[in-house]
Amino acid sequence: MSEKILIIDDEQDIADLLEVYLKNENYIVYKFYCATDAMSCIESGDIDLAILDIMLPDMNGFSLCQLIRKKYTYPIIMLTAKIEETDKITGLTLGADDYVTKPFRPLEVVARVKAQLRRYKKYSPGIITEKIPSELSYNKLCLNVQTHECLLDGEPVSLTPTEFSILHVLLSSAGNVVSIEELFHAVWKDEYYSKNSSTITVHIRHLREKLNDTSDTPQYIKTIWGVGYKI
User: Fold this and answer.
1) Is the pLDDT score of 196 beyond 70?
2) Which NCBIfam families does the UniProt record give (predicted)?
3) Better pLDDT: 195 or 215
4) Are 164 and 148 in contact (CB under 8 A)?
């Protein structure tokens, strides 16, 4: 079955161009030029990945990302015409999995869509091999790889696909340090992430917030300065 991609961008030329490239890859594309028109599509839940522009006429992409994250965990890629690092960090902090700065090459967006969907589908039920433990735990934290569920002291924790992947890598190596380079390779597998350590830092911070953890007195994710992270 073809994955369903949601595009929301008020720059019609960009939205139309992305639609063409994604349809050429056999994706089903739902395209909208404003958030209001896309709401019924979002609420249907029948989406595998969303591409959101930050600057929309009726709602900014950050607010829309937050709205989606209240209910859904599918990957979100933000489009931004701004180059400020704070905008990128804001998007990641609010639950986005990736960002692309305009102007961009459509093929780069397609590559990132494929990378996000690979990771998202990897942790879906039915494709985990028997060699991989279906459940990983540490202290009061439990991660079920087959059901894509995270529990903290018995209570569910809503994680984005990227957050789930990072936590899965760290729990799989519990007790050992995982370098930032190893995390990038295991989670993204894409060269364009190799020099952007701020991306992983933001995701780790967001994970800590969801786990009621802190960098000063960590119960779960510990920073090993100059090396990486460990559980």
Assistant:
1) no
2) vanR_ACDEGLN
3) 215
4) yes
The identity of residue 25, as a single letter, is E
Kindly report the number of other CB atoms within 10 A of residue 140's CB atom: 14
Phi, psi for residue 7 in degrees, rounded to 5 = -120, 125
Q: How confident is the model at residue 215 (pLDDT cuts 50, 70, 90)?
A: confident
- CB neighbour class for 109 (10 Å; exposed up to 12, middle 13-18, buried from 19): buried
| Contacting residues for 152 by C-beta, under 8 A, at least 6 apart | 140, 141, 142, 211, 212
Tokens of residue 145, six digits:
């790889």
Residue type, 52: L
Q: What are the structure tokens assigned to 177, written together? A: 């340090």
Residues near 57 by Cβ (< 8 Å), separated by ≥ 6?
10, 34
The structure tokens 């030329």 sit at 13
Residue type, 201: T
- Whether the Cβ atoms of residue 51 and residue 5 lie closer than 8 Å to each other: yes
pLDDT in tens, 120-137: 776 543 233 344 567 888
